[in-house]
């Protein structure tokens, strides 16, 4: 549902006008954040695994350090690289702040430098650095130190191995298929790569376990390490949803802390804000925006000396993705896109030149946008139009860029049909859809979702967009979709869901609670005839506002899913996933 | 008693929004309203020849009923209705309606007079009769609205309490973005307001203006926030303080509310009066000021924008008005029958006992009571009033068909056609866009023109007496057709649109209507005057009128006394002094040849043309030119004219000669003029003119000789 | 004061009331609670009985029927008005019967035969003049009024029988009855209420605030989230605008969706409806079932040009078929939807079911109506697709013939017979005397009485 605003270039143009700031800068932003999300999750996985191995292989303490140094170096390199000239400035200033103990500090300074520091000085570093997180946590650069601290135990030679190993996995994983940030290749792996049978710690994406303090701490740590502010929840949360984040649109991430461009590429920052403000909404729009942002990032990227693009770039993107994830949880489509990019990056042979590597990546991204989104839409509308016969009265819900595209195509093809646009508070995206359709000259009727059972009596088909198709055949989409499908079923009106295959994802979910998104509750407040009932709902402790974003529609409400691979029943989503894995 | 019922009706309103305010209201004087059941213009001509605008049916209910319902529901307890044109009809209607029942919570007083020529007159009369005791609501008889003005009223009263006579009027606007169809192009307004005090600083009709100017001083008036708004729709509902009436009395030049507002705003410093505004988001309010608005408002009505004033609500309590509402906004009165295969697409209202044939396709239309419609008829945005008979295979698009019209087989009405009362068209005829057919011949206009000015409603009936029955033109209205096409075939196309437009009100500005009308009616006026600026002063208009009159007189050789009559009436219309009349008359006559043949006439041709005219019109002059002073006035204007056209000084003598011989001017008057009067050196030159000197000489001699004779 | 003055005063009041009804609901649904309307109507009718000129029950009934007709016409969506009129008519009948000595059921006993012979109220009876009648009728109406006063409390009283501790209850929009019901329960039990806001009017917000004030844990959700959240709800409690003769509902829109969602998760759906909301009306989409307010509520005027090209609908009511409803809680206890028709037959006299005077509003051959071709579903509508059987099926719904609802085609004559267990009288008149409990018991018995 609600693949609102822009989708492929054409749409973008029109979308711009209601997008706060123009497409161009946004586009490249988008590209960036993508790699990150994927990367994150994997990186964490590595850590877990490595911790396990820790006990067994207890040797080469020294190497640890060096490795860590390496790692630290890596950690900072992006800083150096991304803002080229003043690369070296930050560290020196920072050091005194971070590390109270004199000894390591001088040594740590060179650390960022090209050469790996000598083990000697760093040896004691655990001592001094350990406390550092405590006192210095708030200080802007603390993350670096703390990062070091947190990883110290972890990094071993084994860890290096693990890392390499993880990367292969990841490659396989991303080969297997585009999963979703939530539970990444781990899940995909045991599906796609059955030979790996050892059970993997199934990692929930942290944004669905807010109620678990441990998870929160972990998240906070990671963000700190990546120098990304943690976004605080807003308002009273409905008991059923205490495991989800609830942000206020009025408090965007960057409001209080300014994010140095050394940490996050400006285009990504912008994108993040556009996400959190809902300026860029709808999974297609968001993915496209993301990809473009990442293109920008890649263009501006320069591989630091004696670093490997394939690895460094990936690492570099980590903070971006966790930043975007803070702004608004990633959508399935974005997850898949990120996976894809990440795969492409890691596929780049180390000996390959930077320039051609970058151009190659950019091409890949463009190709992805083109075939997965633009062409997919074309194909789908081809199929869908067959389903639209003259005299049809078609009901659509919210503003799905794909469905709009289909209808417009059909109208071009001189099909005679009317459209019923169903809309729902608080987003009222349907109005946007209405404007677009009416502009094309399609005759429309507009009702709110509460009137759906009245209007459905005259409807002949229901076309719905989707946010993601889950492996168990459930359709995840804008909240309200399931309701429409329900009523349609009751009136025996066929329900057709349109969805590009790149939105298919591995996750399984049977209700709208486990993994969902809470939007700003203040949106529900409304003023009628001068009185605002919910004005001070915050002050009334027994009163809560729930502004859900998605819901899942059980497959038995959906008669048909129209994808770029053809028309299939919901239940065969996993099959499609499998097929895609195989042919990749 | 009215007061009591009103109180009940509202205390009944339980927790309704407007309870609080109105309760106090009852302690105060009952709320009064002035309803002007007369539009003082001729937009709906020729329909309004037979039916005053306030009674025209909109969604099968007379407009005035909507207005009254609006007033009543907003808590008005006493309404004064001022009628002028066809006041008796309006009166009858009202007496029959529920408003005059003893139980009506809103007591209605009907005041009629044929003397009202404008809103100004009415309010002056209000003041004279001292009808108003407190704040009152001022609306026109063609306003359709469901806005609850109570809040605005409260604000208004607060202001008045705060400082007594500062705020005199609160205008009510409705938010609606530009391009909205029920925004009337003509009174598109641009308002500058003080966002805090809601005070109107500048009020301007944007229609027809290329660029807008705002007087600087409004921004100096000491408030920090201003709003310049173009997203407002003027509902033509205004809450006025009693002194509004007085103000109208004080300033005779206030004719319309527009004048008033501008006046107040302009000399705000002097009078210290202010105008405020109230912008409402919900509710609906619009004035049916032309056919386009009629179209827009009707469709809004059908689409229920004016809820609870919906067709099926039958608020006017007329028997048999009840109708039922079903999907796609289809309303059916009792006894409606549809033939097989007929489709009511959407937004259709069908009045009582109307029967519709088979395979018709009806959408966005209103059909009145007792109509019969044949088979295979296509109606789109058609507004069909009562007792209309439409034969088979007819197509109607966005047109208005008045009562008692008969449309024969195979007629097609293109957009914006109007068939006035009892017209018959067809069979097998296609009326092009903007055709207007009426039983009244366009020429009746002329007779009407004399005693009637900007008001269709002042359209006097007795003109029919004068009507000379002309044969219908079958080419225009079909073989069985009855009625006259309201345009002169001789006119160029622009002329035709002119008429359609002033009905459908596309571009014309309210002030322009007057002469656009006269153009439309009195054949070929030179296109020059059409483009005139909105504020063309009366004298100009008068001159134009006179000129037209004379011309027509010439074409249809109307007797001079008739011409005089007309000119007189015009004189009153634009209240022109006799002096001006003479001067203008003279000027017109002298300029006449130029109108005919353009300005590049040689003196010789000019005189050749002019002299016969003078002969013809001598009586007219004689009628006016009596006292010695008159002669002088004539001469001076003649002089002015010739000063402007130096090329034609030669003609001057001839003219003088003629006028002298025709005894329009007396010699001594001429002498006197010649001797004195020389003001500018140019005029002195003029007097040096050979011919003139000769003429004077000749006169003197003639004098002497005549004396000699004795 | 002199009679004439009384007359005018009366008619003024009536006019005022009518005007009130007409403008009623220009905003969010009905401006005032149905309860209020019911009371006002009854009070007005009492006034009429007291002040109007009438000699015999027949005249009075005529007068009341006439006024009633106007009232219902004024705001067809306000069914309570019609219901109260019917109740009063019924009262008059009873009082008349009583004062004539023969008890109501007496002339109901032979009703079947009577109905066949003399269709409609046989004018010979109701004509006699009883001096005491007026007083009795007024007294009875007063009792009716007191009963009306009590309804909400009576319903609220039963709350604890239906709500157990910390369950999750969903409701929609705002219903004063439900509000009272929940608050009453909240005094003893802790539970969580989820309120669907019910756009565009968002009465839900009002509801939520007032509930949370009575510190019930309340959550407001958008209408779109009803289905999403339903899986965690274990009871749905709603109010309604009307209970139809078939046990269906005419409730604020969105309710149907809610009911379907509840059904899908097999969550019990409980309807709190005082008796005066029972209406003999049957659901069909003819004239007055739906009520549409200004599209402005849905799509603001500021939307500009596209408005002229778009059709915007803003219905106020939904039809909820009986099969989706688990239980009715009225002021006389809980009933299954299947039982409603019975209650109605007790509340109103069959003669009064149709207040309309068939002659005034006849309708043309709607069977011939054709709408935009669109699919038609086995639901109540008079959409007619050319060449679909519906056109004939929906005909009877649409064409209102004088004898519609007439005793002849009354729902099963047995009904009358079982009614002759003198129960209706017992509870209409007796209900106010005997305690609620034994009344319930009464109805239980009634339930058991076989219907053949």
Automatic annotation (TrEMBL), chain A:
One of its GO terms (cellular component) is eukaryotic translation initiation factor 2B complex. Its main location: cytoplasm. This is Translation initiation factor eIF2B subunit delta. InterPro entries: IF-2B-related, IF_2B-like_C, NagB/RpiA_transferase-like. Acts as a component of the translation initiation factor 2B (eIF2B) complex, which catalyzes the exchange of GDP for GTP on eukaryotic initiation factor 2 (eIF2) gamma subunit. Its guanine nucleotide exchange factor activity is repressed when bound to eIF2 complex phosphorylated on the alpha subunit, thereby limiting the amount of methionyl-initiator methionine tRNA available to the ribosome and consequently global translation is repressed. Residues 1-10, 21-46, 60-72, 152-180 have a biased composition (Basic and acidic residues). It holds the Pfam family IF-2B. Residues 142-151 have a biased composition (Low complexity). Keywords: Cytoplasm, Initiation factor, Protein biosynthesis. Residues 1-195 are annotated as: Disordered. It is found in: Cytoplasm, Cytosol. GO terms for biological process: animal organ development; central nervous system development. Belongs to the eIF-2B alpha/beta/delta subunits family. Transmembrane segments: none annotated. Residues 89-141 have a biased composition (Pro residues).
TrEMBL record, chain B:
Keywords: Cytoplasm, Initiation factor, Protein biosynthesis. Residues 444-458 have a biased composition (Acidic residues). It is found in: Cytoplasm, Cytosol. It comes from the Eukaryota. SUPFAM superfamilies: ARM repeat, Nucleotide-diphospho-sugar transferases, Trimeric LpxA-like enzymes. Residues 1-14 have a biased composition (Polar residues). InterPro entries: ARM-type_fold, eIF-2B_epsilon_N, eIF2B_epsilon, LbH_EIF2B3/5, NTP_transferase_dom, Nucleotide-diphossugar_trans, Trimer_LpxA-like_sf, W2_domain. PROSITE patterns: W2. The keyword Cytoplasm applies. One of its GO terms (molecular function) is translation initiation factor activity. SMART domains: eIF5C. Residues 1-26, 441-473, 514-534 are annotated as: Disordered. CDD domains: eIF-2B_epsilon_N, LbH_eIF2B_epsilon, W2_eIF2B_epsilon. GO terms for cellular component: cytosol. Belongs to the eIF-2B gamma/epsilon subunits family. This is Translation initiation factor eIF2B subunit epsilon. It comes from Coilia grayii. The lineage of its organism: Eukaryota, Metazoa, Chordata, Craniata, Vertebrata.
Automatic annotation (TrEMBL), chain C:
Keywords: Cytoplasm, Initiation factor, Protein biosynthesis. The keyword Cytoplasm applies. It is found in: Cytoplasm, Cytosol. The keyword Cytoplasm applies. GO terms for molecular function: translation initiation factor activity. Acts as a component of the translation initiation factor 2B (eIF2B) complex, which catalyzes the exchange of GDP for GTP on eukaryotic initiation factor 2 (eIF2) gamma subunit. Its guanine nucleotide exchange factor activity is repressed when bound to eIF2 complex phosphorylated on the alpha subunit, thereby limiting the amount of methionyl-initiator methionine tRNA available to the ribosome and consequently global translation is repressed. InterPro entries: eIF2B_beta_subunit (IPR051855), IF-2B-related (IPR000649), IF_2B-like_C (IPR042529), NagB/RpiA_transferase-like (IPR037171). Belongs to the eIF-2B alpha/beta/delta subunits family. One of its GO terms (biological process) is animal organ development. GO terms for cellular component: cytosol; eukaryotic translation initiation factor 2B complex. It comes from Coilia grayii (Gray's grenadier anchovy). The lineage of its organism: Eukaryota, Metazoa, Chordata, Craniata, Vertebrata. This is Translation initiation factor eIF2B subunit beta. Component of the translation initiation factor 2B (eIF2B) complex which is a heterodecamer of two sets of five different subunits: alpha, beta, gamma, delta and epsilon. Subunits alpha, beta and delta comprise a regulatory subcomplex and subunits epsilon and gamma comprise a catalytic subcomplex. Within the complex, the hexameric regulatory complex resides at the center, with the two heterodimeric catalytic subcomplexes bound on opposite sides. It comes from the Eukaryota.
